[in-house]
Amino acid sequence: MTSGSSFQLPRSVAHATLTGAAWLCLALLSLSSAHAAEPPLPDRKPAPEKQSAGKPPAPSKDASAKEAQAKANDKNGTPAPAERPSLAWTKIEIDAAKKECANLLEKVAIDYQALDPISAGECGAPAPILVKSIGANPAIEISPPATMQCPVAAALDKWFSEVVQPEARALFNSPVVKVRNAADYHCRNRYGKAEGTLSEHGRANALDISVFTLQSETSIALGNSWPKPGQLVQRTPAPIPPLPDRNPEMLAASLAAERKMDEAMGAKGPKFETVALRAANAAMKTSTVSIARLAGEQVLEVMKARMEPKAMAATPPATMPEKPIEPPLKTDPDAAAQFMVSIHKGACAYFGTVLGPKANDAHKSHFHLDMIERRTSYCQ
User: Fold this and answer.
1) 224 pairs with which residues across the strands?
2) Rounded to two decimals, what is the model's pTM?
3) Taking the mean position of all CA atoms in its chain, how far away is CA 157?
4) What is the C-alpha separation between 231 and 335, in angstroms, rounded?
5) Domain ranges of the chain
6) What does each of the 380 residues of the chain score in pLDDT, given as a tens digit?
7) What is the 3-state secondary structure (H, E, C) of the chain?
8) Dihedral angle of Cα 98, 101, 105, 106, to the nearest 10 degrees
9) Residue 56: left (phi > 0), alpha (psi -120 to 50), or beta?
10) Within 10 A of 195 (CB to CB), how many other CB atoms are there?
C-alpha cells in the first residue's frame, strides 16, 4: 500500500461483512413483526362508545355531580367510583337476586318495573327495580320513581303501613299518598367525596325522602317540620277539676221525689226496688202470667221515673249530637313535628341506617334510609 492511496478491504472480506449486516436486519424485522402479531391486553373497564354524529348524549340527572367529582379527581388523582375497574354480575348472582325479589315482594302491594343489572365501576346491583308506588288504600306514590333493590322496597312497605300511615291518621286525620324521592341510585362515595367509602346509594340500597303529602293535599316537608329545641318538651298536664252539676235544682227535685217514694213504701222497710223485685220473683213462681207482667211493669216504671230526671239534670238535650263528629284536620307545627319525630324513630326497626336532622346538616332536609347489614340499627 503506497502513501496517499485509500485503504480497501479484500472483496471476500467485504462480502462477508455485508452478508452479516443483512442477516442482522432481517432478524430485527422478524422480531418486531412477531411482537406486532400479539394483540394488546384489554382494559378492565373499556372506554365508553363514542356517540354517533348528530345525536347528542342523553342528559343525566346527576351530570353536575359527576362533573364536580371529575374535577376533584383531577386534583388528587383518585378515580370516581364509576370510573374504577368493574366486573360484570354473574348469572348465579343475578338469579339469586331475582329469587330474593320474588320472595320479598310476593305479598307486597307494589307498582314497579324490573330493570337490567347495573354494573358501573364499584357501583351497581344485580336485580334493581324501579318503584312507582307502595301500599294500598291508599297507595303511596314515590315521586319521581326510585331505583332500588328489593330489600329496600320491602322495608319501605312495612314502615309505611305500620308506622307512617297510623301516625298520619292519628295526627292529621288523613293518610299519606305521596313521598318525594330526594335521592335513590347514584354512583358516588358518601357525601359525594372524592375519597372514602362507597355510598349505599351507589349499590341501589338506599332512598332519601324529603316531603310527605297527605290525602288532604297538605305537604309536610322535613326541613320545615323537624322540631326546634324545646318545642316538644313533655309537660305535666294540669289537674282536671270535677265537672259541676248541670242543673242543681232539677237534680235536687229528683232526689226529693226518690225520698218520698221510699217513704211511701215504709220508712223502716227496704227500698222500693227491693220490694218490687221480690214481688216479681214471687209472681214468676206462680202460674199467673198477668201478675208477673204487672210486677215487671211496676219495676220498669219506677226505675224509669227515678233515672230520667237524673239524666236530664246531668246532660242538656242541646249538647247531645246525633252522630260522632270527625276530628278536624290538624297541620299545626307541633303535630307536624311530632309526626316527623315518630316516623324517624319508627324507621329504626326496619332499616340498617336512618339519618335525619339529628345526624348532621347534610341530612337536615331529608331522611336517609338504607339496608346496610349491621348488628344493630344506626339511628340518628
Assistant:
1) none
2) 0.57
3) 8
4) 11
5) 91-228+331-379, 248-315
6) 444 444 444 444 444 444 455 545 555 555 444 444 444 444 433 444 444 444 445 555 455 555 555 554 444 556 777 666 667 899 999 999 999 999 999 999 999 999 999 998 889 999 999 999 999 999 999 999 999 999 999 999 999 999 999 999 999 999 999 999 999 999 999 988 888 889 999 999 999 999 999 999 999 999 999 998 877 755 555 567 776 656 777 777 777 777 777 777 665 555 555 555 555 555 555 544 444 454 555 555 555 555 554 444 444 444 444 443 444 444 577 899 999 999 999 999 999 999 999 999 999 999 999 999 998 889 99
7) CCCCCCCCCCHHHHHHHHHHHHHHHHHHHHHHHHHHHCCCCCCCCCCCCCCCCCCCCCCCCCHHHHHHHHHHHHHHCCCCHHHCCCCCCCHHHHHHHHHHHHHHCCCCCEEEEECCCEEECCEEECCCEEEEEECCCCCEEEEEEEEECHHHHHHHHHHHHHHHHHHHHHHHCCCEEEEEEEECCCCCEHHHCCCCCECHHHHCCEEEEEEEEECCCCEEEHHHHCCCCCCCCCCCCCCCCCCCCCCHHHHHHHHHHHHHHHHHHCCCCCCHHHHHHHHHHHHHCCCCHHHHHHHHHHHHHHHHHHHHHHHHHHCCHHHCCCCCCCCCCCCCHHHHHHHHHHHHHHHCCCCCEEECCCCCHHHCCCEEEECCCCCCCEEC
8) 50
9) beta
10) 9
Cell readout for 293 is 207482667
Cell of 311: 239524666
All 3 cell numbers of residue 112?
314497579
